[in-house]
Fold each of these.
Amino acid sequence: SSRQALEQARAAAEELEDLKATAKGLEEENGELRRQARHMHRGESQPFFCPEQNQRLLAEGQGLREQIQAQAARMADLEVSAGGGHGGHA
């Protein structure tokens, strides 16, 4: 039972790291889009910035934040379970 909880915690930790890496990639892409938007606002003739793409990135980022929060909550529950269930949920 404790072994299973530890395996679940390890899997959850790996999933959380994957989500964080994906979120970081989206943040970098969003930063690049913001830089391109600043260039566009400075009067460059060819805009590189697509509002639809930025909206997609913002929505994906919000979804990833929610997934990371949910994953962190699951990890906290697994840590409680692995610790012998003290202070468990009713």
Amino acid sequence: GSVVASYPYDDSPTHSPTGVYSKSADDEVFKYLAKAYASHHPIMRTGKPNCPGEEGETFPDGITNGAQWYDVEGGMQDYNYVWANCFEITLELSCCKYPPTSELPKEWENNRESLLAFIEKV
């Protein structure tokens, strides 16, 4: 896990594991939506999730192009965009994929304003 808003494309023409910016026709819209979420999240907006084992990982403005972060061939986010014209972003909300129940109130507080801001944009 991490704490970042990721946007299409997740797949790149070269299928390099990381580092390839895969721009969609609606890249500016996706960046706008991702920033709308990230800018209201206390950790995400720093661009430094500081996840164990990935302490040096950074995401400017708390967002990333999916393929630039890591290539995912055949992902649902890209499929829905290409075949159903759905504008989706992927929200990585925690360094831990399955946080303990005791952490959920804190996660809600971290994400409440971001969710409201995102809904307002939609």
